[in-house]
Amino acid sequence: MSDRFPTGEQRPLYETKANLFKALAHPARIRVLEILSANGRPTPVSEILAQADIEPTLLSQHLAVLKRHHVVTGQRVGNAVIYELAHPKIAELLVIARTFLADTLGGQRHQLDALDSLPPLGEPR
């Protein structure tokens, strides 16, 4: 097995995957995705805006990034623009990320508890 970075036909696949993670790499975008996932239906921008507590221009920019990387889809319906997750597995990805976060934080709590169980230190001289 080669440990070199893939070139040729495989390289664009890795770039596409990296772009997915770039699209996810902002707390506001994660919040938007969680809102869309929790709603489980196409959601108007006005509703996302009310729940996300983000400035309208910033929300627009974040939605554009998510749309450009095919994480969400958007369409105009009358005067409203509605968004939804582009693929149901994105909701699953959010659940996995939250589980990872909980496990990581749980591990840190264990370390903090272990730190508390260390014998006391003497006063500095």
Q: What can you see in these coordinates?
A:
This protein has 125 residues and is mostly helical. It has a single domain (11-116), classed as Winged helix-like DNA-binding domain superfamily/Winged helix DNA-binding domain (Arc Repressor Mutant, subunit A). It has helices at 11-24, 27-39, 45-52, 56-68, 89-116, and strands at residues 43-44, 72-77, 80-85. The mean pLDDT is 88.
C-alpha termini separation: 57 Å
Q: Architecture, CATH level 2? A: Orthogonal Bundle
CATH superfamily: Winged helix-like DNA-binding domain superfamily/Winged helix DNA-binding domain
Cα Rg: 21 Å
Poorly predicted segments = none
Tell me, rounded to a whole number, the average pLDDT.
88
Helix/strand structural class: mainly alpha
Note the main attributes of this structure.
single chain, three-stranded antiparallel beta sheet, DNA-binding, 125 residues, Metal_resp_trans_reg, Putative HTH-type transcriptional regulator, 11% strand, flat, Arc Repressor Mutant, subunit A, mainly alpha
